[in-house]
Amino acid sequence: MSKRQVLTIAGSDSGGGAGIQADVKTFQERNVFGTSVITAVTAQNTLGVHGIYNVPLEGVRAQMDAVFSDLDIAALKTGMLVDESYITLIADELATHPDIPSVIDPVMVAKGGALLMKTEALKAMRDKLVPMATVVTPNIPEAEALAGMQIKTEEDMKKAATILRKKGSKNVLIKGGHMLDKTCARDYLLMEDQTERWYETPRIDTKDTHGTGCTFSACIAAELAKGKTVEQAVKIGKAYIQAAISQPIHVGNGHGPTNHWA
Ligand code: PLP
Fold first, then answer.
1. What is the CATH number of the domain that holds 155?
2. 260 lies in a domain?
3. Residue 195 catalytic?
4. 191 Cβ partners below 8 Å, 6+ apart?
5. Per the record, GO CC terms (predicted)?
6. Lowest CB count within 10 Å: 6, 26, 33, 105, which one?
């Protein structure tokens, strides 16, 4: 039987912990066939981002044409998109594939502080790409930027999710890892039919969390490709990411990557 094929449209991390590399490793571990459209090449390791080299738009378009003209993509995710021109290109492409479930990870800033999306691109992300999403997966700072509000409490997380649903994302997952609670990380999912779920896991004290967001959204895309519901896919993703963070593999001298074998 042919394997389910999944696409990531994102940036490359030469250090192997985040971006395209994290996505394709996750696809492999989740038993789907991973494909990739690379939007930018980062010179990066566990210590930080040392340079960003954008792939020309024409090259991004050519990669998408090559993938979509041959492979049968069952779900996709997006990651690092540097500016409005990339966001518009991808949004226009997704509009031609309305039946492919899409996980939009609105990557903005790397853990080390490097800007992975220009701030001027925020409006395009909110108004062009978020409306195309089957599920959008912001962390707290990303949700604050997209919803245009501060998030201090769990009530605020719910409000921000409602705002993003109104922007057109069918489902919204706000990852609560940046909240101040020292004991647990609570993620909030607001679904298409207005039902909601909280996912709570004990907080793990580690610096080895590089690529967690990429891995989470890639896992959700892989599970959607296998026919899981958004609710099931998020539940599986949360368990996978928790296992990945709790068993660090001690790679590099900075923020180590999550453990994709977990
Ligand atoms: N580099 C690339 C290419 C990414 O796509 C991402 C995250 O999405 C990162 C770095 C940031 O990873 P982290 O914030 O987990 O270090």
1. 3.40.1190.20
2. no
3. no
4. 170, 171, 197, 230, 231
5. cytosol
6. 33
Q: Determine, yes or no, domain membership for 227.
A: yes
User: What parts of the chain have a pLDDT lower than 70?
Assistant: none
- What spacing in Å lies between the alpha carbon of 17 and ligand 1's midpoint? 8
Q: Give how many domains the chain has, as a whole number.
A: 1
- Indicate which residue of 16, 79, 211, 256 is catalytic: 211
- Dihedrals phi, psi of 116, to nearest 5 degrees: -100, -15
* pLDDT, position 13: 98
Distance 1 CA to ligand 1 centre (A): 33
Residue 152: HSE in the Cβ half-sphere, 13 Å Cα cutoff:
1
Task: Write the pLDDT tens digit of every residue in 111-128.
Answer: 889 999 999 999 999 999
Q: What is the pLDDT of residue 247?
A: 94
| Closest of 160, 168, 134 to residue 6, by C-alpha | 134
Within a domain: residue 106? yes
State the burial class of residue 96 (Cβ atoms within 10 Å of its Cβ: 0-12, 13-18, 19+): exposed
- The per-residue pLDDT for 66 is 98
- Pick the catalytic residue from 17, 19, 79, 213: 213
pLDDT at residue 17, as a whole number: 97
Is residue 96 flagged as an active site residue? no
CA dist 137 → 50, 213, 227, 234 (Å): 26, 8, 19, 10
Q: Which domain holds residue 222?
A: 5-246
Residues touching ligand 1 (Cβ under 6 Å) are 10-11, 13, 18-19, 42, 44, 79-80, 107, 110-111, 116, 210-214
CA–CA dist 188, 160 (Å, integer): 10
Q: What local confidence, expressed as pLDDT, does residue 239 receive?
A: 96
Rounded to two decimals, the ipTM of the complex is: 0.92
Is residue 258 a part of any domain in this protein? Answer: no
Choosing from 116, 137, 207, 215 the residue with most ligand 1 atoms within 8 A of its CB, the one to mutate for a pocket test is 116
